[in-house]
Amino acid sequence: xxxxxxxxxMAMFTVVASGQVSVxxxxxxxxxxxxxxxxxxxxxxxxxxKQIAWPELKERQYIAPGVEIISVTxxxxxxxxxxxxxxxxxxxxxxxxxxxxxxxxMTVKVDGKEYQGNTLALKxxxxxxxxxxxxQFFPPKDVQDNPxxxxxxxxxxxxxxLMVVLAAMIYYLYVRLKQNKPIISxxxxxxxxxxxxxxxxxxxxxxxxxxxxxxxxKTYYTMLTDTLRQYIFERFGFNAMEMTTSQIIENxxxxxxxxxxxxxxxxxxxxxxxKFAKYSALTNENDLNxxxxxxxxxxxxxxxxxxxxxxxxxxxxDEKRRIADRRLTKALIAVLTVAVAAIFVYIMISLxxx
Length: 354
Description:
Layout: H1 2-18, E1 22-27, E2 31-33, E3 37-47, E4 52-53, E5 62-64, E6 67-72, E7 76-79, E8 84-94, E9 99-103, E10 107-110, E11 113-116, E12 120-125, H2 150-179, E13 188-191, H3 195-208, H4 217-236, H5 245-254, H6 261-276, H7 283-300, E14 308-311, H8 317-353
Parallel strand pairs: 2-12
Antiparallel strand pairs: 1-3, 3-8, 4-10, 5-6, 6-8, 7-8, 9-12, 10-11, 13-14
């Protein structure tokens, strides 16, 4: 029975306590020197859900005659175990006159109802000054240099040495990279003249030099047949320069190109007679053979051939090895540069924080 009564009383006390509002004031220091500051804490305990209204406190305002407010902090709330909360504000105060001050109780409103805290006492004292011995007063001391401590600087020193060594390695690798001649595969663009254009240019040269009308027919037919043989070699792909007339005709027939074979056969036969049998051809015969040569070239030429050719040089094994070494050197330079930059940033940040 006693136990039940105790539990009931405790529950009633908890309900009553949870519905009560209390205001408590306290000072961090009850005694300060003139000009010194101290904090006055105002703690309000109230049920959860109730609203609190603080008195208006401003900086440079006197909370009591001779006691000045320096600053007021925002409220700080914490929840307690008995379904209540504690709201605390700090008021920093000071005084410049020696006296014993009474700090009045602060009034706060909770849901429109006023509640007061407790009165405090603040003692402000002054420093004892020996007016009988004024020679004991000394002016402020000069700023003194801090003693050098190797323990504070050795880390930065060794990091700096590492940065210098890495920078020297970067310079060495860069010089080595510049001393080795770069291997660049230059792609040459070669102008390609089609076979029929070269042959027609050569025949035009024969016409301009008027060899066709000279008495030296051997030279004329030699130049004309050599031009045709070279054209056939470039156009059809077999070595007409080392073949006889019959072999050339057979290869052209095998290539399924029967254009003007009879005229071509007659041209080569006339040339053979002139060169080897001392045959003397007529002027109109020479002109006809020249015209037949031009017609053969025009009838067998290939249109739309590329006029430029890209020639890419082949890289040897030694050159490939040198290229790989240069790439490795460039990679090392990049990695070391990043490391030096990181160390430099670390040293600058460390110096700034010291």
